[in-house]
Each structure stands twice: as structure tokens, then as C-alpha cells.
Amino acid sequence: MGSERMEMRKRQMSVQQESAVGGTAPAQQGQPGQANPRGSNACCFCWCCCCSCSWNEDRDDRNRKASYDVKEGTSDCEDCPKPTLEEVRSWGQSFDKLMCCPAGRNSFRQFLRTEFSEENMLFWLACEEFCNETNKTTIEERARVIYEDYISILSPKEVSLDSRVREAINRNMLEPNSHTFDDAQLQIYTLMQRDSYPRYMNSPAYKNLLNTLSEQSPES
């Protein structure tokens, strides 16, 4: 009986050891198998996050740049002397006289800012500089900047253009030249003349400027 009990005990211990070994082996095999997907998922997750973060950072930088251009960068307008009474009066005669005067453009630009349409003046000014450019490389670079800033539908400063002009610009961007934005510039000029200019002439900004200069004039 003692020998049989010893034999049974050995068998039980052997079964327990085999069970222990059999139980840990799959677990050990399962851990490397699980580690790989986790590692793979972690890598994919990190890669996606890194790409997403870098893209978001680039987008944030672009948005901050655009925001700076509109809100802070535009606080300094064109350098020009203080307008005379005669000049301010001439602004009321025609939109062309207003736009030909640097002080007139500055005053009108500040008014457009209050109407959240300053991008029209910014685009027009950018086109004025662009059309005088002669270097081919510079033209291509500036054309891309103007397109991204004022033509692209993704830009916060996109100007309002009809489909015909927009399609023409898209074609011209294949080989941009100094006249790429001529039609668009004229369309925005006309828009400001018909839409914003009459409101500016009736605005307190223009009337107060005119009254202030009239009071300071020796004639008064």
C-alpha cells in the first residue's frame, strides 16, 4: 500500500508539473504573439499621431500666419504723408482718385477692416506689386503665394471671384506670368467700387476726417 501511495503521489506530481508547464507554455507563446500586435499598433499609432501632429502644427502655423497678416500685420499701412483737405475732398469725386492716393487707400483699407473685407484691398495691393515683377522665378513664387492667400478656397482671406475668373487663374497657374491675376484684380476693384466705396463715403470715418481737416484749414 505504501508503495502504491508513493506511486500515485509521483503520478499526481508529474501531472501537476505537466499541467503547470503546459499552462505556462501557451501563455509564454501568447505573450510574444501579443507583443507584436501591440508593438505594431503602437508604431502605427505613433506614426499616425506624429504625422497628424506635424500636419496640425503646420496648419496651426499657417493659420497663425494668416491671422497675423490680417489682424496684426495690417496695422501698419502704406507710408504716406497726412492727407490734405483737397485730397480728402477729391476722394468723394471718384473711386479712382481715392485709390490713386496712398492716404486714401490707407483710410479706405481701415474702413474695410471694420467690415471684415480688408482682404479685397490686400489682394489688390498684392496684384499691383506682382504685375510690376519681371523675374520669372520671383513671378512663380509670388503667384503661388497670392494664390494660396487669396484664391484658394482653403484660405481665410479668400476673395470673392466668379467661376470664369477662377478657372482662368487655375489655367494660368500652370505657367504664371505678371498678368495671371489681371482679371481677378479688376473684378475685386469693381467690387470695392460698387459695394464698399459708397458706404465708406457715408461712413463716420470719412466724414470725421473731412470735418477735422476742414476745421484745421486756414480757409475756415
From TrEMBL:
For this protein, the record's SUPFAM superfamilies field holds: Regulator of G-protein signaling, RGS
Pfam families in the record, alphabetically?
RGS
What keywords are assigned to this protein? Signal transduction inhibitor
Q: Where is this region: Disordered?
A: 1-33
Bias class Low complexity marks the residues at 20-33
Q: Which InterPro entries match?
A: RGS (IPR016137), RGS_sf (IPR036305), RGS_subdomain_2 (IPR044926)
Q: Enumerate composition-biased segments (Basic and acidic residues).
A: 1-10
**Chain ranges passing through the membrane:** none
Picking any one GO biological process from the record gives: negative regulation of signal transduction
RGS domain ranges (all copies): 94-210
Q: Can you say what this protein is called?
A: Regulator of G protein signaling 20
